[in-house]
Amino acid sequence: MIPVFNERKSLPLVVSDLPRGLVHEIVVVDNASTDGTALVARDLPVRLVSEPRRGYGRACLAGVAALESDPPDVIVFLDGDYSDHPEEITRLLEAVAAGADLVIGSRTLGVREPGALLPQARFGNLLACFLIRILSGHRYTDLGPFRAIRWEAYRRIGMTDTNFGWTCEMQVKAVRAGLAITEVPVSYRRRVGVSKITGTVWGTLRAGYKILWTIARFGFNRGKRETGNGKR
């Protein structure tokens, strides 16, 4: 699952590096791109889904909804900016095969190219992971978007966030649902182009506020476990 917004230059690189033998289907969700990303995607071996309403969470929700009629065993979420190393999907899937329900690709535990993870992103990750640990009792090292989750586990936690809170919502709800969670180290490089979030002051502030709000919203219910489709 690759949500994209104006990633026409990087998307072909991401798709070409995915190991075909391990991936049943590549779903690209175009989130109202204006640079011709959708046109580029049509020439790639992917299934293209359109979500005209902007928002990272909305794109992910739309992609998952497109799979409802024939769901996979595992969904791997991967950004389209080529900052992660798609070939390292093997690390995440090996952890799932070993029994994990949710696997976070941790950039903190892996090797990072100098300048790949901007200072504001590093600080935000540290703060968010600290707050999750205080409120939920689980220790994460990263909110990295490169992640794998079993289909049944995904359906169980009931994802709802439509934008910047998507990753931390999944991680907090996974703890509440009692999922088997693990992290694996992944490599990280400077993305192609400029980040829409940490690349601007306004984007950083908006994302930071939403992430903290999401952690507080779901984290303070630490005593309640999720059942069914996210209902308590």
Distance between the termini: 28 Å
**Mean pLDDT value:** 88
Q: Major beta sheet, specifics?
A: 4 strands, mixed
- Number of helical segments? 8
Under CATH at level 1, the class stands as Alpha Beta
Number of strands: 7
> What is the CATH superfamily classification?
Spore Coat Polysaccharide Biosynthesis Protein SpsA, Chain A
- Tally of structural domains: 1
The structure class reads: alpha/beta
Enumerate the spans where pLDDT stays under 50 for 5 or more consecutive residues. Answer: 198-203, 222-232
Q: What is the ordering of alpha helices and beta strands?
A: EHEHEHEHEHEHHEH
Descriptive report:
With 232 residues, the chain is an alpha/beta fold. It has a single domain (2-219), classed as Spore Coat Polysaccharide Biosynthesis Protein SpsA, Chain A (Alpha-Beta Complex). It is 38% helix and 12% strand. The protein has a four-stranded mixed beta sheet with strand order 4-6-5-7. The protein is globular, with a radius of gyration of 16 Å.
In short, what is this structure?
With 232 residues, the chain is an alpha/beta fold. It has a single domain, classed as Spore Coat Polysaccharide Biosynthesis Protein SpsA, Chain A (Alpha-Beta Complex), CATH 3.90.550.10.
Question: Any key phrases for this structure?
Answer:
single chain, 232 residues, alpha/beta, Spore Coat Polysaccharide Biosynthesis Protein SpsA, Chain A, 4-stranded mixed sheet, 3-stranded parallel sheet, 12% strand, disordered C terminus
